[in-house]
Amino acid sequence: MKCLLFGIGSKIYGSNFEMLGFELLLASLKKNKIDAEIFYYEYDDQEDIYSAIHSVNWNEIMALGFCPFYTTFSYIQQVITIVKEINSSIIFFAGGAAVSHASTECLELLPQLSFVIRGEGEKTICEVMSKIANHQDWKVCLGITYRDGEQIVYNSPNKLIENLDELPWAERVMISKSTT
């Protein structure tokens, strides 16, 4: 089972050749032997999102992550709704600078999300995905905000990564796709 990081961009802003945050998370996940990949979708008002979603084998996915921006919330909601119909056991989550400081609002805008990663995500995503893969309680992980019924729970922040040299280099998979 794998973690899929679902990037969404807009063709009207020109090609987004890279989502470096996702590529950094991907490198950390792979370093920790967690199966993961990035799926990138560029939208415009004329495209049908269904064909992009149906190109993924959703039976292989344990968790689906997003990095929302104000322009992508409606697209993310569409993706979640469609994917939930295909495989209701997938856990949906979000992270990134735009939602890290507004995790409650993110959970309110995207009610089908299970949690939001706050702050530096490299360590937190590996801990949460390891728990999910091993069928353990991921709600104990530091650095997340999650919904427990109607209540929003803020776990303590994860410790900052003091030595950034310990992090792996980004998996530059998106930039390599843009040059082919």
Short key terms for the protein model shown above:
globular, alpha/beta
Question: Which helices and strands occur, and which strands form pairs?
Answer:
Elements: E1 2-10, H1 20-31, E2 36-43, H2 49-53, E3 61-66, H3 73-86, E4 91-94, H4 97-100, H5 103-109, E5 115-117, H6 121-133, E6 144-148, E7 151-154, H7 173-178
Helix pairs in contact: 1-6
The end-to-end span amounts to 28 Å
Output the structural class.
Answer: alpha/beta
Sequence stretches where pLDDT stays below 50 over 5 or more residues: none
Number-wise, the strands total: 7
Kindly estimate the percentage of residues that lie in beta strands according to DSSP.
15-25%
Given the structure, what is the number of helices? Answer: 7
Q: Can you give the mean pLDDT?
A: 88
Order of helices and strands: EHEHEHEHHEHEEH
Looking at how many chains there are and whether they match, the oligomeric state comes to: single chain
Strand order of the largest sheet: 2-1-3-4-5-6-7
Shape assignment: globular
Largest sheet: 7 strands, mixed
Structural overview:
It is a single chain. This protein has helices at 20-31, 49-53, 73-86, 97-100, 103-109, 121-133, 173-178; strands at 2-10, 36-43, 61-66, 91-94, 115-117, 144-148, 151-154. By secondary structure, it is of the alpha/beta class. Strands 2-1-3-4-5-6-7 form a 7-stranded mixed β-sheet, sandwiched between helices. Helix 3 (73-86) links the parallel strand 3 and strand 4 (91-94). Helix 1 (20-31) crosses helix 6. The longest helix is centred in the middle third of the chain and has 14 residues, at 73-86. The protein is globular and about 45 Å long.
